[in-house]
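Reviewers of the previous submission asked for a worked example of the structure-prediction workflow described in the proposal, so we include one complete record here. The input consisted solely of the amino acid sequence. No template or homolog information was supplied to the procedure at any stage.
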Amino acid sequence: MNPAYSYRIHGLTIRSTMEIPELIPAIPNGSADIAIELGKVPANLSTITSRGPLWQVGGRNFLLEVPTVARYLVMDGKHVVIEPMNGGVQPAERTSYAARSKVLF
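From that input alone, the workflow returned the following structure tokens.
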């Protein structure tokens, strides 16, 4: 991952390969608590220990699908891979969705 953006939220340092305009930028300082990048996300985890209609848990991994928006894979609570669907989501829609669901942060 080649992070281009740094943020701080709730005391955590976030490094991301994508801009997240809803967050306040921070000066890179030390290692990141959370890394976010765009990439391919599997439709299913290789090992599933619990699941719901739109999510799966397996070991230290969490997979969430938000239909028509994106699939999110969280690994070890520190690394997030996002695969946007249908060309991604505009910033206003991301803000509205995040505020309603509190899924990302």
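The radius of gyration is 14 Å. We consider this example representative of the routine output the project will generate in years two and three.
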